[in-house]
């Protein structure tokens, strides 16, 4: 039954209704508790203070990790890559090395950015959504900050650096060493299989 409502929402490009999300979450947490699970990690929920209040009714929240990314890096991530009007390939407009190492296949020179009115509207729409999300997030952050459950974690490096830094912030450095061993093992096995 839930699958029908979820599929309809997703197919229509809408968010899944909160009552369905929290119904599924309650059921999953209960099943996990019955199997002996002692904890869980949620990603992307709660998004609002109302959702946080509902979540508090169905689970005990020990810690909320707030991944803080500088707006400039988000903007660069979302808008730094452009589409070449000649070859249609994505390229990093802010990095001249990117265009010189990888020239446009159609012109054999630098890529030319495609700047249609639709692309400009899309950027404005993204920035509007970003700012609305930031305002909404402030209320949620304050909600958990008042409860002394919020850990602000600055994100500045790649996934590996972020993971190791997060483990250190959570006082789980021993897991960082295991992660590095796993990464080394994976890279060695890839080299051996090539």
Automatic annotation (TrEMBL):
Which EC numbers characterise this protein's activity in its record?
2.7.4.3
Q: Gene3D superfamilies, per this entry?
A: P-loop containing nucleotide triphosphate hydrolases
Q: Which UniProt keywords apply?
A: Kinase, Nucleotide-binding, Transferase
**PROSITE patterns named in the record:** ADENYLATE_KINASE (PS00113)
Q: Which SUPFAM superfamilies match?
A: P-loop containing nucleoside triphosphate hydrolases (SSF52540)
Task: Name the family.
Answer: Belongs to the adenylate kinase family.
Q: What is this protein called?
A: adenylate kinase
Q: Which organism is it from?
A: Asparagus officinalis
């Amino acid at each position: 039954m839930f699958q029908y409502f979820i599929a309809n929402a997703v197919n229509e490009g809408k968010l899944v209704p909160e009552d369905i999300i929290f119904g599924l979450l309650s059921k999953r947490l209960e099943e996990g508790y019955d199997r002996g699970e002692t904890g869980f990690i949620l990603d992307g929920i709660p998004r609002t203070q109302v959702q946080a209040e509902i979540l508090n009714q169905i689970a005990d929240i020990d810690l909320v990790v707030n991944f803080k990314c500088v707006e400039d890096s988000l903007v660069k991530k979302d808008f730094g890559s452009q589409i070449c009007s000649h070859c249609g390939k994505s390229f990093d407009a802010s990095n001249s090395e990117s265009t010189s190492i990888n020239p446009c296949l159609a012109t054999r020179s630098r890529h030319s950015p495609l700047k249609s009115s639709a692309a400009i509207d899309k950027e404005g729409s993204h920035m509007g959504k970003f700012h609305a999300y930031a305002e909404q997030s402030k209320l949620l952050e304050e909600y958990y900050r008042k409860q002394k459950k919020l850990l602000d974690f600055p994100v500045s490096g790649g996934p590996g650096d972020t993971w190791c830094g997060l483990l250190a912030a959570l006082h789980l450095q021993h897991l960082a060493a295991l992660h590095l061993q796993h990464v080394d093992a994976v890279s060695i096995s890839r080299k051996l299989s090539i």
